[in-house]
Write a structure and sequence with these properties.
CATH topology of one domain: Rossmann fold
Helix content: 40-55%
Strand content: 15-25%
CATH superfamily of one domain: NAD(P)-binding Rossmann-like Domain
Largest sheet: 7 strands, parallel
Low-confidence stretches: 370-374
Number of helices: 13
Order of helices and strands: EHEHEHEHHHEHEEHEEHEEHEHHH
Distance between the termini: 48 Å
Shape: globular
Structural class: alpha/beta
Mean pLDDT: 93
Radius of gyration: 20 Å
Number of strands: 12
Strand order of the largest sheet: 3-2-1-4-5-6-10
């Protein structure tokens, strides 16, 4: 699916553009549009520009234009700095803002919730204030076409039973510090639309996976543990269900929502790839047996460990609205997308080790703090 960026969108501000999903968005904009991309990122432990640098190199080698290099500009800014955020918005002068910057790892939010409140709530507030001032100052024609897309998560809806799926009208019921901070940011974005008229669109997505994901999330963790012959931790009974969405399918949805979605409306984005965590881990082990048979059977490394505190049982998304209104549908079957992802990580082990070493994260388990415990 190729999403055509309207000619009115000349300058795009992507917050969190050095992250996993944000980086995929930036690469797509550089590859399939002529927009100038301003990448606002504080360059935290999970940030990495390698994929964007690789994309820029590919564009140069394809002789697209030497000017492609200037189409991407990094703005190293922490949204907690209100003045720096304001200046970044002024400098980028965007026609479209894609807000992906967020602390996003549930386990980390259990150990240190303050960073999630600061980044996801206060940071979003500062961005909204800066973008509102920018929007008010635009000429009328640019005001009419301007939008801010706020990217959120299905975790704001809480936990599902064995039946049903989340949809746009599902009441919010966040269960983790991460989910609560994202729910708060969603409410802020809606309030700035209803109170001040800021033209916003929101999306809530399921678990993303694919190349270039920081190796602390489930799928890359399992791949790297299997490659190293280390114990693969499986939380609780392994029966928690997640709906998996390939990152490039998510980028399709985001750009459609940003350019064609109805202002003030939200869109749920799911991959129709529901699997228990146990199924995902076993599928990875089977793929590893095929790709790295010397370590077989990799399933012998799986070990049930104490569950995450407050671990939601099941997530699933009903994507009917974005499918019927905007024509979106995922292109990647989970089994094929997972195989491509496992192969990518095997081929990019050096990158994984480099970003882990730089971040100080060595693959150890985090998120063990329980209520009243240390």
């Amino acid at each position: 699916m190729t999403v055509v960026i309207p000619a009115s969108i000349q300058r795009v501000l992507v917050t969190g553009g050095a992250g996993f999903i944000g980086g995929a968005v930036v690469r797509r904009l550089l590859r399939e549009s002529r927009t100038r991309v301003f990448n606002l990122d504080k360059l935290s432990y999970a940030s990495d520009l390698s994929s964007i640098e690789q994309q820029l190199t590919a564009l140069r080698e394809a002789a697209c234009s030497a000017s492609d290099e200037s189409r991407h500009q990094l703005l190293q800014v922490d949204l907690l700095d209100a003045e720096a955020t304001k200046m970044a918005v002024q400098k980028s002068d965007p026609d479209l803002v894609l807000h992906l910057a967020a602390e996003s790892h549930v386990d980390r939010s259990i150990d240190g919730p303050a960073a999630f409140l600061e980044s996801n709530v206060t940071g979003t507030f500062h961005l909204l204030q800066a973008v509102l001032a920018h929007w008010h100052a635009l000429p009328l024609e640019r005001q009419r076409s301007f939008r801010l897309l706020h990217i959120s998560t299905d975790e704001v809806f809480g936990s599902l039973g064995p039946e049903g799926r989340f949809e746009e009208t599902t009441p919010y019921d966040p269960r983790s510090p991460y989910a609560a901070s994202k729910a708060a940011s969603d409410h802020l974005v809606r309030a700035w639309h209803h109170t001040y008229g800021l033209p916003v669109v929101l999306t809530n997505c399921t678990n993303n996976y694919g190349p270039w994901q920081f190796p602390e999330k489930l799928i890359p963790v399992v791949i790297l543990k299997a490659l190293a012959g280390e114990q693969i931790p499986l939380y609780g009974d392994g029966a928690n269900v997640r709906d998996w969405l390939y990152v490039e399918d998510h980028v399709d949805a985001l750009l459609l929502a940003a350019t064609c979605g109805e202002i003030g409306r939200s869109y749920c984005v799911g991959g129709y790839g529901e699997k228990t965590n146990k199924q995902v881990v076993e599928m990875i082990c089977t793929l590893m047996d095929k790709m790295r048979p010397d370590g077989s059977p990799h399933a012998r490394l799986i070990k049930l460990v104490a569950d995450r505190p407050g671990h939601d049982r099941r997530y699933a998304i009903d994507s009917t609205r974005i499918s019927t209104e905007l024509g979106w549908k995922p292109k990647h079957d989970f089994s094929k997308g997972l195989e491509a992802t496992v192969s990518w990580y095997i081929d990019h082990l050096e990158w994984c080790m480099r970003v882990r070493d730089r971040s100080g994260y060595g693959g150890e388990r985090i998120g063990l703090m329980s209520v009243g415990g240390g």
